[in-house]
Write a structure and sequence with these properties.
The chain is mostly helical. Helices cover 71% and strands 0% of the residues.
Length: 371
């Protein structure tokens, strides 16, 4: 009935087949499970969306039923290349997500899938930078099977993601930073970190837009400390030097006559303070203790930073910021992003982002004092 001309019957047949498989899992021959997988793969191409959706849902339980025999299914799905550039994932990528998310805790299965998927991901770097499917698949692979990567695979994937962060479009670049964060949890080798930092610094220095390049680097630093502070803490001094150089405290009095350029400078300061917050929030050893004095001095200057304001009101504004900081941190949206009335009012009245510098400096100052 899964081949019936009536789409409603095909839908019901898939639903009934899924229930039957669930009820008789211990009494099904291996060839029957293989046939079930073949049917699901076929129905992913169904002309009716309801049938495709039902087939997609069935992939959630497939890894448990097939175990190591899921590998041919993964190979089939990874070979279904997107036919055109799109901002949405294909149904084959969604099916792979359902498989990877529900893999059994069997090392052989995870290692086998890694060995199938990684070479396909690395085979066409240019397509990876254009098509959303590849970064979605790699992100899922890292998230659900990352602990089974060997150090060579980690090194290769780091190099690949580093290049993509600095050469792909904005969406894929941001997703690559997120994927890097998940992968960095598995980094244990000091040598790998040293090579990674060397490569990403070189890419930053050669990036066409100075502020964008530095912003990407700071985002990577923030994620590094948040994801694997234990491994990155020995590099705290080296990374702090990058952070402090982006704050450009010695240039605070040099107001750029080009308003847009000034906002880029201040946005970079915000990114640098965010990285500093990640450093001092997650690293609490002697490696960071000796940085606190320098950080406190910088924050003391930045909480009064107001290039377009009246400096005589610095003290009053700093006190107002201190009152606002608790409200700012108490409100979060569904994605965990913080908001406050202060932020909304400032955004509505002015696109001058120096207030963000002051607020983020106060966040860092509070973190350093508390820790």
């Amino acid at each position: 009935m899964t081949k019936d001309t009536d789409p409603d019957l095909r839908f019901m047949a898939l639903n009934d087949l899924e229930k039957e498989m669930s009820n008789t899992i211990n009494h099904i021959a291996s060839y029957e499970v293989d046939e079930y997988a073949r049917i699901l793969l076929t129905r992913l191409n169904d002309e009716f969306p309801e049938v495709r959706t039902q087939s997609l849902k069935c992939f959630e339980s497939l890894p448990y039923r097939l175990k190591v025999d899921i590998l041919p299914v993964v190979r089939t799905l990874i070979n279904k290349k997107p036919k055109k550039v799109s901002i949405t994932s294909t149904i084959y990528t969604m099916a792979l997500h359902n498989i990877l998310e529900n893999l059994p805790l069997i090392e052989e299965v995870h290692v086998g899938i890694i060995n199938i998927v990684l070479p396909e991901i690395f085979s066409d770097r240019e397509k990876f930078k254009l098509e959303i499917d590849y970064i979605e698949i790699l992100t899922d692979l890292i998230e659900y099977s990352g602990k089974y990567f060997n150090q060579t695979q980690i090194f290769q994937t780091l190099g690949f993601l580093t290049e993509v962060i600095f050469t792909a479009d904005a969406i894929i670049s941001k997703k690559s930073i997120s994927a890097y964060g998940s992968l960095s949890k598995s980094i244990e080798s000091v040598e790998i970190i040293e090579n990674f930092l060397k490569n990403i610094t070189q890419l930053t220095n050669s990036y066409k837009n100075f502020y964008e390049g530095q912003s990407k680097l700071l985002s990577v630093i923030s994620v590094s400390f948040a994801s694997n502070s234990l491994s990155f803490e020995p590099f705290a001094l080296q990374l702090w030097e990058i952070i402090s150089s982006c704050l450009k405290v010695n240039e605070l009095g040099d107001l750029d006559q080009d308003y847009e350029n000034q906002q880029e400078k201040d946005n970079l300061r915000v990114e640098a303070l965010t990285a500093a917050l990640s450093l001092f929030k997650n690293c609490k050893s002697d490696n960071t203790y000796f940085l606190t004095g320098d950080c406190l001095d910088i924050c003391e200057v930045l909480i009064k930073y107001d290039p377009y304001g009246d400096n005589s009101e610095d003290d009053e504004e700093s006190n107002a910021l201190a009152d606002d900081i608790k409200d700012y941190n108490d409100f979060e949206d569904e994605d965990g992003d913080s908001y406050s009335d202060y932020e909304d009012d400032e955004d509505a009245d002015d696109d001058n982002c120096s207030w963000k510098v002051r607020l983020e400096a106060l966040n860092v100052l509070s973190c350093v004092i508390e820790n």
